[in-house]
Amino acid sequence: MMILVSGSHCLLAQGEEELSPWQTLSQLKYKQRYDEKAGGLVTVPEFSPMLKARENTEFIILGYYLPFEMPEKNQMVLSFYPYASCFFCGGGGPETAVEVELNEAIPKLKMDELVRVKGKLKLNDKDWNRLIFIIEDAVIIERI
């Protein structure tokens, strides 16, 4: 399915309206659960049926590049907000940042450069060392 971005919404080929990628990612709730490894309560995302339906499908998203060190050389973070207001700096929730696993080396990017990537959406509610949204097999399709 091809999606064309128009403002804060996306227009499907048939002319139907769909939520923008960032609005789609915000369709979740959180619950508290005891985690033995963490030794206490952790906040766990509960993904909506819409998000679950999007898992393992092509996902295109535009975000601000954040220069965080990632364990793997081809991983990066994109945010709905620029660095000064990002999730890690207190400006938004965890649904406002995505981890991106590129198929190639990360090009030289500037902090807050807008980057559009395409890949497969993965939902993460188990690995606390990773973000809750991961774009796998990703390619950069635009730098703005």
Q: What report would you give on this structure?
A:
- A hairpin with an 8-residue loop joins strand 6 and strand 7.
- The protein has one domain (17-143): OB fold (Dihydrolipoamide Acetyltransferase, E2P), CATH 2.40.50.
- It is mainly beta and 144 residues long.
- Residues 1-17 have low confidence and may be disordered.
- The chain has a 5-stranded mixed beta barrel with strand order 6-7-8-10-9. A 3-stranded antiparallel sheet has the order 1-2-3.
- 8% of the residues lie in helices and 47% in strands.
- It is globular and about 40 Å long.
- The chain has helices spanning 21-25, 49-54; strands at 3-6, 9-12, 17-19, 28-35, 40-47, 58-66, 75-79, 97-102, 114-123, 133-143.
- The longest helix has 6 residues, at 49-54.
- It is built from 2 helices and 10 strands, in the order βββαββαβββββ.
What do we call the CATH homologous superfamily? Nucleic acid-binding proteins
Number of discrete helical segments: 2
Q: Please state the second-level CATH architecture.
A: Beta Barrel
Radius of gyration: 15 Å
Please render the helix and strand layout as text:
Blueprint (H helix, E strand, L loop, with lengths): L2 E4 L2 E4 L4 E3 L1 H5 L2 E8 L4 E8 L1 H6 L3 E9 L8 E5 L17 E6 L11 E10 L9 E11 L1
Parallel strand pairs: 8-10
Antiparallel strand pairs: 1-2, 2-3, 4-5, 6-7, 6-9, 7-8, 9-10
